[in-house]
Amino acid sequence: QVQVVESGGGLVQVGDSLGLTCTVPGRTFGSSDMAWFRQFPGKEREFVAAINCISRDRKYAASVRGRFIISRDNSNNTLSLQMNWLKPEDTAVYYCAIRTDYCSDFVSSLQNLYNSWGQGTQVTVSS
User: Fold this and answer.
1) For residues 117 and 4, is the Cβ–Cβ distance under 8 A?
2) Per-residue pLDDT tens over the stretch 10-69
3) What is the rounded CA–CA span in Å between residue 1 and residue 100?
4) How far apart, in whole angstroms, are the C-alpha atoms of residue 17 and residue 83?
5) Which residues contact 53 (CB under 8 A, 6 or more apart)?
6) Alpha-carbon distances of 64 from 31, 77, 82, 109, rounded to whole Å
């Protein structure tokens, strides 16, 4: 298991922006696809965004496309999710996940392919 640590959640208002950060210590980050998922209360975890190991491919859920931006800094082992124009329906626990030592041409949204997960960070959007 690889350690994955999220940060940056919080309480914001509708229309606000918020950034999430995920760090993965060690040497695996730069050779691994990364993704964000989220889970609503009482619901299954769902895909939000993913990025391949060298940032050449990104994928977004339809519900966040055009509002959220996923990026990574391999020199600092950091994954980011910039969330803009937040809506109440974005309220969820957000999870960072790594597909360790796997760099795909076309990044996957399938959560069972990601083998290590963070503890989650709560994002609450108030109306």
Assistant:
1) yes
2) 999 999 999 999 999 998 999 999 999 999 989 999 999 999 999 999 999 999 999 999
3) 9
4) 5
5) 30, 31, 32, 33, 34, 74, 102, 103, 104
6) 26, 24, 11, 14
